[in-house]
Amino acid sequence: MRRILPILALLLPNAASAAPGPHLSPADIVAHAPDTAWADVPADRLLVMTLADGRQVAIELAPQFAPVHVGNIVHLARAHRWAGGAIIRVQDNYVVQWAPRDEKAQPPAGFVAHPPAEYDRARQGISFHPLGFTDPYAPAAGFATSWPVAAEGERAWLPQCYGMVGVGRDMPPDTGDGRELYVVNGEAPRQLDRNLAVVGRVLTGMETLGALPRGTAALGFYADKAQNVAIRDIALAADLPPAQQPHLQVMRTDSPTFSAYLDARANRTDPFFVRPAHGVALCNVPVPVRPKRQGAAR
Amino acid sequence: MRRILPILALLLPNAASAAPGPHLSPADIVAHAPDTAWADVPADRLLVMTLADGRQVAIELAPQFAPVHVGNIVHLARAHRWAGGAIIRVQDNYVVQWAPRDEKAQPPAGFVAHPPAEYDRARQGISFHPLGFTDPYAPAAGFATSWPVAAEGERAWLPQCYGMVGVGRDMPPDTGDGRELYVVNGEAPRQLDRNLAVVGRVLTGMETLGALPRGTAALGFYADKAQNVAIRDIALAADLPPAQQPHLQVMRTDSPTFSAYLDARANRTDPFFVRPAHGVALCNVPVPVRPKRQGAAR
Fold this sequence. Notes:
Shape of chain A: globular
InterPro entries (chains A, B): Cyclophilin-like_dom_sf, Cyclophilin-type_PPIase_dom, E_coli_cyclophilin_A-like
EC number (chains A, B): 5.2.1.8
Number of helices of chain A: 4
Order of helices and strands of chain A: HEEEHEEEEEEEEEEHEEHE
CATH topology of the largest domain in chain A: Cyclophilin
CATH superfamily of the largest domain in chain A: Cyclophilin-like
Protein name (chains A, B): peptidylprolyl isomerase
Radius of gyration of chain A: 19 Å
Domain PPIase cyclophilin-type (chains A, B): 49-217
Number of domains of chain A: 2
Largest sheet of chain A: 8 strands, antiparallel, barrel
CATH architecture of the largest domain in chain A: Beta Barrel
Strand order of the largest sheet of chain A: 2-3-13-11-12-5-4-14
GO molecular function, one term (chains A, B): isomerase activity
Oligomer: homodimer
Largest interface: A-B, 78 and 77 residues
Strand content of chain A: 25-35%
């Protein structure tokens, strides 16, 4: 018999098992979540990256955390500045980074050349669902409006977890402007928290970005431009023909289902396990994503 | 100017920068480490996996944590039971798993058919260098003889960090026997701590394993056997011709250099950073590895 390991099946909408009961896995809880536990990802906060080979990646933007950088990114996407761009860097257990077609091109109208350091924001207004366990990087950790959030005093920020998208920059005081972006691909490099702007997260397609060949030059850059992974385009979903717009939902982190899911992530009592951990790290509770179901109420 | 992100350059022996001083990056500290900060990885604790395409992965074994499972693995390697085997599963942000050529073959002499649950061990005898920060999965976390270690009361275990190798098993009470192994490839699935036997870690070659295409069947298994990634062999380094034996060193976690490295991982003050985190997670302090230098004292 093939030996297996437990799975966190975030995208198995048909993985319904027995009716909800004790000792459920996180995947079971997600599979049985009612429609009211899910929130739509609006098309004007969603980017669709299409690689030259046709594979796609969906990225949800977080304007509530980095409004100016996100504004720049939306301007760039609407002007198709990444069409003909490329993934130029894949560093194992760290990041995948991409660049626009022409770094020297005049930015589009409305672009802010030198955004402020949107590395954290005011905590006020954030409705925080605590993680419930310690975080070595921040005094407070939890979730708000379907995002993971860390906080200290009156400041809050998006943590640099697996799948989170941030803004590449030069040495301080440069903050980056949104033209070069990266996604975290490995153990969460939380030392980057509050040092670079986090603008969003990959919702679908990490299996594509994560499997790219690692670059062999320093920092994981591709040594030869011929190795760069060509990007066909990065577009705002709202600008795509309706039939091409992804319809995705993320779990509401203020829902009872999310509370149960978080508890199950921290305390695995499903049959595969012999000992629950009684704790979990912030980045080890990825907020569930699913394709929106036809006829779903919201 | 290309925008960059900081790098943890664990294998850049020539990345010497300025003489040691303040505000060093972890990479700087590793690059300047004296030879006395490094310990050889013995050839009889080292596996060399060679894929059919010639790429290699070096795996250090941890018999002090899982002696029976490691004993089985050594028997299997010496009998070349993975020659003609394959990587059968690659699940994004989770594991890469491989299997021997013939699951039905009679195990080699000396093989223990039903090993005990080597999911943790007595803490006694472990010389613990504390991490110095909280861990949501264990009351105590740190390092011992160049391994990351978590502990609770009188028990200690190897955490399921990126690059750690564990034993695939079926439902309890099965413990696995070492024939199917996996490596963690993503955010540390620490919920697996004390639920599966950890037998070692990948020292070199994660850039190969991490970049494999993700399987599309459930749990990341390859849907079609034709997609399996063929293994030419997994051999014990000590059994290879001397010229083929990797000579690797890991940093001594009882060395002053390691203390400085750990501090730098937790407090990035090198020029790229604007704000140190003042903390770090256990799995975000990978123990440095380097090729042994010719003429190095040990």
